[in-house]
Amino acid sequence: MKEFKIPFIRSRRKNRIVALSVTQLKPRTLARGIIEGFILSLAIAISHLGCGYSAKGLLPSYIKTVYVKPFANNTYESRLETDFTTELIDRFINDGNLKVAREEDADLVVSGALVEFRREPLRHDVEREVEEYRIVILCNVKVEDRKREMVMWEEQNFGGDTSYFTTGAAAKTEASARDNAISDLTRRIVNRTVEDW
Fold first, then answer.
1. CB neighbours (10 Å) of residue 18?
2. pLDDT for 7-59, tens place per residue?
3. Which of 70, 142, 65 lies closest to 101, judged by CA?
4. 80 and 105, same domain (yes or no)
5. 192: left (phi over 0), alpha (psi -120 to 50) or beta
6. Mean of the pLDDT values across residues 113-137?
7. Residue 58 has what pLDDT?
8. Distance of CA 103 to CAs 31, 68, 87, 100, 189, Å?
9. Do 98 and 117 fall within a single domain?
10. What's the Cα-to-Cα distance from 176 to each of 34, 111, 133, 165, 188, rounded to whole Å?
11. In terms of DSSP H, where are the helices of the chain?
């Protein structure tokens, strides 16, 4: 029987790495080495499969363009609708799955209204001063398929949020946190639009 050398087997004597022949290995050790090698190869193969992931395959082939109608602002937060609509358009552009187009040329139309903006205290210090807040933005959103003249998805009180500290090294301004909440909400809308088919 021909012996094959397997490198990097740790010897029990003196804790050294030595080459052992297959005939010197116990069947359990050999099987374990084969299984570990297989699992490592499988993990590498799976990680390479994920590198080319694109949500584009989830959209129907006839949907290529989107138009975002300016959202109405039913909150007391000024300019929220302008900042939100601009961020939503930018998010679709950066996502790259759909090209932003004029309303008459669009395959999908996204419309809706911002219905709630709230700032909630999350954490207080020993003097009962607020250290951390959460900003929540809710909207009613509708995505219409213009080619097939149907609503693709619609949801009331669709939300995005963020939290921020008012003091310390991680402190943010409310304006910065507001931008983060807008970004979170627009990300969720775009993801649901391009992936939820």
1. 12
2. 555 555 555 555 555 555 566 665 666 666 666 665 555 554 544 444 454 88
3. 65
4. yes
5. alpha
6. 94
7. 80
8. 63, 8, 18, 9, 18
9. yes
10. 53, 25, 12, 11, 19
11. 27-50, 80-95, 174-195
Statement to judge: residues 46 and 142 lie in one domain: no
Note whether 135 and 45 are same-domain residues. no
Structural domain count, the chain: 2
In this structure, what token pair is assigned to residue 98? Answer: 């759909």
Tokens of 44: 């590498």
pLDDT tens digits, 58-72:
889 999 999 999 999
- Looking at residue 155, which CATH number applies to its domain? 3.30.160.150
Question: Residue 55 has what pLDDT?
Answer: 44
Whether 89 and 158 share a structural domain: yes
Q: Is 59 helix (H, G, I), strand (E, B) or coil?
A: coil
**72: exposed, middle or buried (Cβ count in 10 Å: 0-12, 13-18, 19+):** middle
Instruction: Clarify whether residues 178 and 157 are in a common domain.
Output: yes
Same domain, 101 and 27: no
Six token digits for residue 140: 């009613």
Q: Which residue has the tokens 């187009």?
A: 101
State the Rg of the chain over Cα.
27
Is the same domain home to 28 and 77?
no
Residue 81 contacts residue 70 (beta carbons within 8 Å): yes
3-state secondary structure of 126: coil
Look up the domain containing 128 and give its range: 57-195
